[in-house]
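Researcher: Let's try something more involved. This one mixes different molecule types, so please make sure each is placed in the same coordinate frame as the others.
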Amino acid sequence: MALSPESEFVAHVLDIVDAIPPGRVMTYGDIAATLGSRGARVVGQVMARYGSDVPWWRVIRAGGHPPVCHENRALEHYRAEGTPLVPASVATTDAYRVDYASARWSPGE
DNA sequence: ATGGTGACGGTAT
DNA sequence: AATACCGCCACCA
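Model: All components are placed in one shared frame. Result:
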């Protein structure tokens, strides 16, 4: 539901996510902003439905946390790509956290 | 048109 | 730090 595979919004979101280089990440909010909208949720919907064909693990939340229930799977990709991570031991009680400050990326870079 | 639904964001408690 | 709540936006019944 919500969002059709032919929508421009979906195409743009998938295009941006697919353009994110390895070792870099973007937040839902940043993607939405790039599209000229603030619908961070909508971006999340797109990922949930069509993110299967795109490096979804490179898309994280504003706090640097990967999508809920996917952190374990995403972690493998991060380690494989060399994405800057912040160990939980020195950061929070969570499993880990993405070094958003260093890994954040913007289209056209 | 109206309401409901989110892989969200931010502020308040 | 962890919840709770509200505000956002695109889309479907």
